[in-house]
User: Fold these one by one.
Assistant:
Number 1:
Amino acid sequence: MRWLAVALLVSCTPVPPPAPKTFSVRDGFIRDPEGRAVILRGVNVSGKHKGPPYFDFHEAPDFARLRDVWGFNAVRFLVSWSAIEPRRGEYDASYLAELKRRVSLATGAGLLVFIDMHQDLYGEGFVGANGAPRWTCDEKNYAAYRPVTPWFLNALSAQVIACVDGFWSSADLKSRYVQAWRQVAIALKDDVGVIGVDPMNEPPWGSMPNDVFEKTRLAPLYREVLAQVRAERPDWIGFLEPAASRNLGLPTALPRFTEPNVVYAPHAYDPDAERGLGFKPERRAAILENARALKAEADALGAALVIGEFGGNASHPGIVEYMDAQYASHGAVAAGAMYWEDTREDDGYGLEQADGGLKPALERGVVRPFPERVAGTPGAYAFDDATQTLTFSFEADSTARGPTVLSLPASWRGLDVTCTGGVWTREGRAVVVSTSTGASTVSLSLRRLPE
Ligand code: 9MR
């Protein structure tokens, strides 16, 4: 009879739901197929994708360096509507094929990728701008345009606003836009390393009040883009941005997302640094406060938080302090964050020097260890530059399959680790932690030993 009792016990045990094989969002974090929280830390690739030929220098070794040498785990990959649909209704098959190849190099290097449909100042018809193809707005606007500096003040140009308003009030243009997204999804649908889409960079709100815009125009467009791309890849995560007005400090008015698997993906810049004035160290508190506010907005939206852009000019005063404040702000709310931008041979925000090495000031502030997979709910992570020490703790979740993994830059060789609630090992660039049976909290401290 014992076998019968065992059989009954087995048959009465609820069958656990099948484990998702894809990335998703649950309880405020992106989750991997093993149920671990994923913290994305990476770079934007890149500003050079904004205009012809719409791709930059990144080939396989360049993506490998991002992952294996600098320790990043993600890329926000820029695409442009102008490149996809240069003439109305005509998709550029060679661009889409090259996009597929380039993205596969990134994912092949072990990077997780989400795709950003970029725009600055509406579109290509305006000098120095990018995004929408020229045919989407009346030529008379481009002809009358007189750009000013810094570049973002051109968002106030009457001609730019006319084109932005024209887009948002045209069902036809919006439909072309979401169909362009469908082309991207068709091109990339077989690439499992592509985990989602950022439907529009820094959405411009035109002449409408920004809060009305977010509710009545932006949120519906997001729903349409997600529906189109999820027809090809149902698992793709939506990395959804607030209106660009968020960069000015105006809280988002986006309604709570009803779609599953959504990340709130705002940008975080210091206004003075963006105007080329450098970073004043006393602004650190404001950077930290802004990230806390963004996290509260993400929570209210039912989303995880990934800062889709932060970055600065390596030659401007205060850059190390600026990036240190940024890292601290991401860690305090356990957010992901993507550096703007991984390009080289520029005197702007590029991470790399002309020879492909890192700009030293940015290496110090940006290329740092971080927890990338967490078997539970991440708490804060923090890095002390003076002592070269990462501290991190999390609430353990026994249903997560797979260990916690901390990613270190390859330059981190000698290491002093303390760990409570788990057992750690060093595996190449990573510190891998198994939660001890019964532990509810795991705490770690990793100090880089001097060479
Ligand atoms: O850093 C970029 C600068 O070189 C360009 O002139 C400008 C306009 O295309 O864009 C800058 O990048 C911005 C990005 O496109 C959107 N978010 C803010 C970035 C930094 O200002």
Number 2:
Amino acid sequence: MQGLFITLEGVDGAGKSSHLDWLGEFFKSRGRQVRMTREPGGTPLGEKLREIVLHDAMHPETEALIMFAARREHIAQVIRPALAAGEVVISDRFTDASFAYQCGGRGLPADKLERLEAWVQDGLQPDLTLLFDVPDQVARERLLAARDLDRFEREQRDFHARVRAAYLERARLQPGRIKVVDGSQTLAEVRRSLEALLGDLVAP
Ligand code: TYD
């Protein structure tokens, strides 16, 4: 079996979390070994870095460097070994989030992140990225209804609008890999869209 690397992305409140378990089951029911993971995090060290980066104030470049430091560990400890073993790796966020949040949201220049990406990923890219997209107002209403907000979720409306625009721009530039899913549909409708997108990846 060929390993498969799938990432889920979207602004906070776009609804990706509601589909994570379903996605895992989709592949398990087709006989695949599935590895569910997340960023920032995914390893014991990465989870410690997650706590820091989600809650402590810091320079935007420090924030980007911590995201990539956690990612380096995640790739070495989890992603590469699982892919080599033929598993389906499903990660709740990956590098597109750094371009969306640290570049789009915080305003860091993309070329700095491109250098980190080349260094840390050494050619590794997701086979498929599902970008959950919803209008700014929908994401905002979902967020305000949520529990304890982290540093990113507490950001202002225009920050989230910039993050969304950066995600959509990446999807426009990499249409083969990044598929936009309309997260404002009903759960059943989103699942039908996902099944259509995943159909190509599973053996008949
Ligand atoms: P998120 O995936 O939304 O988790 P939860 O559903 O538990 O809130 O939280 C991760 C946050 O980290 C999210 O706001 C986006 C941010 N983030 C970045 O800014 N850059 C990155 O590279 C990654 C992976 C996440």
